[in-house]
Design a protein that fits this description.
The chain has helices spanning 2-36, 44-74, 87-98, 121-137, 197-207; strands at 82-86, 105-110, 116-120, 144-151, 157-163, 212-217, 221-228. With 232 residues, it is an alpha+beta fold. The structure holds adenosine-5'-diphosphate and magnesium ion (MG).
């Protein structure tokens, strides 16, 4: 009985979060087009409100996307569609989904040998987006967020996302990739989150034959790195 209820709950959450996303995408798209409209360029108040609309719709969209992944993960239904991905475009897409809210600068570089890789585009974009949104969330305004993609010494594709933020205490790094796991300290207490992002990232990365880990120095910054197996 309980198991039946649980699977009904998962199914329901799956449908709801999926159906949330298309109206949200329309709101985001409409908001972004308005922001580019010439008529409002000298209307700071209107621009500010539009930014809020786009930002919050983006947040809801990411939440819906994460919820969908989690319900699918839990029911073993997360399926992957591997195809050739344009890495630079992937990063640009991920950045554009967090950029509005952040007063951060973004830099990225992609080694020519890994300009195109094989993987699940939507899910890898979700991983990079989750990491960038953490970088933004846990570092002060005006900070720099850097994304690099290269090859490591054993010929795996290596992604890294760095920030100049508060960092993670060394003794807590190990558990952050578990479900609902968050650092609880003075600095991060006011920052909201469910502690699910890194868990989803790990699942997706492992499904690509890779590993994910975090390197950090307190009050200096954090770099999250992950690898993807190179298939040819
Ligand atoms: N770039 C980062 N800088 C500092 N702490 C981080 C960073 N990324 C993740 N963390 C820590 O790891 C925890 C887990 O991250 P995540 O799973 O994305 O959950 P959430 O962002 O919802 O809190 C965060 O709560 C935070 O304490
Ligand atoms: Mg997060």
């Amino acid at each position: 009985k309980l198991m039946e209820l649980d699977s009904m709950k998962s199914e329901f959450l799956g449908i709801v979060s999926h159906d949330f996303r298309s109206p949200l995408s329309s709101i985001i798209l409409a908001g972004k087009s308005l922001l580019k409209n010439e008529a409002i360029q000298d209307q700071p108040r209107i621009k500010e409100y539009l930014h809020i609309i786009v930002d919050q719709a983006n947040r809801l969209n990411q939440l819906a996307e994460d919820t969908l992944s989690i319900t699918k993960l839990e029911s073993g239904q997360l399926s992957y569609y591997f195809k050739i991905i344009n890495v630079e475009r992937l990063i640009q897409d991920a950045v554009s989904m967090v950029k509005f809210s952040s007063r951060h600068t973004f830099e990225y570089s992609v080694h020519p040998d890994v300009a195109f890789i094989k993987g699940d585009q939507t899910k890898l974009r979700q991983v990079v987006q989750n990491l960038i949104s953490n970088a933004v969330k846990y570092s002060p305004k005006g900070g720099k967020v850097t994304v690099n993609v290269s090859l490591d010494e054993s010929d795996q594709i290596l992604f890294s996302v760095s920030d100049q933020g508060m960092g993670v205490p060394p003794d807590q790094i190990g558990r952050l990739f578990q479900k609902f796991s968050r650092v609880d300290n003075e600095q991060s207490r006011g920052i909201k989150g469910a502690g699910l992002g890194l868990w989803i990232c790990r699942e997706v990365v492992e499904a690509h034959g890779g590993k994910i880990w975090l390197e950090s120095e307190l009050n200096k910054g954090t770099t999250v790195k992950f690898t993807i197996r190179r298939s040819r």
